[in-house]
């Protein structure tokens, strides 16, 4: 039998192709087959598994980027990490087998999937029948995939031969025809931004390295992680070791944060002078757009390389969101693979199975929003209508959102508490196309006791992203008890934007949510004036603004709600009032004016007492109690040195620790809490005691909620 396998591998190496083998059965059986294969065929046999000693853990597979191996094993017997599978496949060079171990075929769809712990909103491991059945369908659909099931005798005749192709020539390190053409353009460039996009293994990083090698000047290198730049450094190398040392010195690597800090510091001193002729940014689409845009302004020539679609979760949003706004941008694409031959069986299967093969669809641009009809999608329908629903829905998210990835595909198909709404053109009797997509996640409905513990900072269960944040950060435990839905994603085909389709999707979802007696819809987004304008037009009200920039967007996190019930309306009004009181101070911290009315009242109210008690007697962080603490410092006549040094004198934490002779940050935080408690007691000792009892109560529903006279 293995002689046939050897013959197949020889053919694969000659033709520059790779194949997938699926072993379905007991783990002990598939492990035995793996041992036989590794003994029979020489190679690296890199293993990705969470349960095999010496293997690469799936969550750490990103460390494999930029490396090459011959043969690999992917262990999916207890869970399928789709990103890790794609990463492993991308490292395998021509002539490789990728052997995937899976459970018994009939049991696989209903077996608990450990990977669900990473992405499912609720706690605990769940089965993922829709995604697994999709993978099974894909395995069956590709005759080049070898499926070996333990319960069915394996027949040599079942192995289909590869289609006959010419002999494949492995790249020799010199530029290919397409690379040379692009390299000539880059070497002649005087200014501008050049964007090189490609699927995995097309040589875009190699091209960047060649630019470093042949450019007669200075190049700087930047990337999300230094490990991903190994290919660039390898192709920039000259055989002479002294020359290689020179190249390494002249091509420094910068992390994104350090380079931004350097550019901002240098800006005032050397306005028109650049330190480098070229800034090379590898896997640029994994960097937030605002940071990329800022970096680009500091260099005369910039080369951005990016995987347009793949497991990094970049999506074509990279081109839509950044490149379209640049005045001097040149977009180029590498299409010919270098690590393996064209029409590679493994790549073809992976692209189809993980929906990497998104194709741009052409639509009738005369369509109006009134001509659409809306369809509520249940998760079983993904498999019933894979082309119209699954591929178009996920493809639209990929094209419109920056970081759509296989993890989102897993959530989409099997995550708990998901709701999907599609805006379709055409009629069921004729051709239909998906124009808009809305993805909602159920939140809230937690007990008052759990919501109180979340507010107090003592609990943080999985899921409920906005509901928990509004309880933990905005100080509203009722946000977690009310029933709500969060907008996870909303997308409209580029041709149809600014026609009210997103608003129509929201209106439809509001009607459905009201029928389900939900209290509000919510959304969390990286704040920009344009995005807020969209949500405001849809009826949302701004209720929270974060003070730290999102890593994904480079913007401050904003949260907004659209109330649907009387309880939801009361909550929205309370949250708006609190944001209004803090708006002036928030604007000073963020550097721009918040789009809310400013309430200049600096007197302590019930909301302040609750917040201050949460800080003094529980675990609420100083950052969320910041403005209430500022108000009590104005009210109190006590010294309160620790709080005043940090909040009024603006001393850093390190300076406070030093001046107060404390033993680190934890000691300072303890001191802050003690001073806050002291300040409350000095204003009203009895009321402070009541609030303390309420805060530490295990069942706030039966505890008397304290109130204080209005003049407090």
Description:
41% of the residues lie in helices and 16% in strands. The strands form four sheets. A seven-stranded mixed beta sheet has the order 14-15-16-17-18-20-19, sandwiched between helices. Helix 20 links the parallel strand 17 and strand 18. The chain is globular. About 1% of the residues have low confidence.
Averaged pLDDT: 88
The end-to-end span amounts to 86 Å
Instruction: Work out the oligomeric state of the chains in this entry.
Output: single chain
What is Rg?
Answer: 29 Å
Q: Uncertain spans, ≥5 residues at pLDDT below 50? A: 239-247
Main sheet? 7 strands, mixed
**Total strands:** 20
- Tertiary shape: globular
Proportion of beta-strand residues: 15-25%
Major β-sheet strand ordering: 14-15-16-17-18-20-19
Determine the fraction of residues in helical runs and give it as a percent range: 40-55%
Number of helices: 28
Class of secondary structure makeup: alpha/beta
Concise overview:
With 712 residues, the protein is an alpha/beta fold.
SSE layout and pairing:
Blueprint: H1 2-15, E1 19-24, H2 27-40, E2 46-48, E3 72-75, H3 82-91, E4 97-102, E5 112-113, H4 116-119, E6 126-127, H5 129-141, E7 146-149, H6 177-188, E8 192-198, H7 204-214, E9 219-222, H8 230-236, H9 241-250, E10 253-254, H10 256-266, E11 278-281, H11 289-296, E12 301-307, H12 317-321, E13 329-334, H13 345-353, E14 373-377, H14 381-384, H15 386-400, H16 406-414, E15 418-425, E16 433-444, H17 448-456, H18 465-472, H19 478-481, E17 483-492, H20 501-515, E18 520-526, H21 529-537, E19 541-549, E20 556-563, H22 566-590, H23 606-617, H24 626-635, H25 641-647, H26 653-659, H27 665-683, H28 685-696
Parallel strand pairs: 1-4, 1-7, 2-3, 3-4, 8-12, 8-13, 9-10, 9-11, 11-12, 17-18
Antiparallel strand pairs: 5-6, 14-15, 15-16, 16-17, 18-20, 19-20
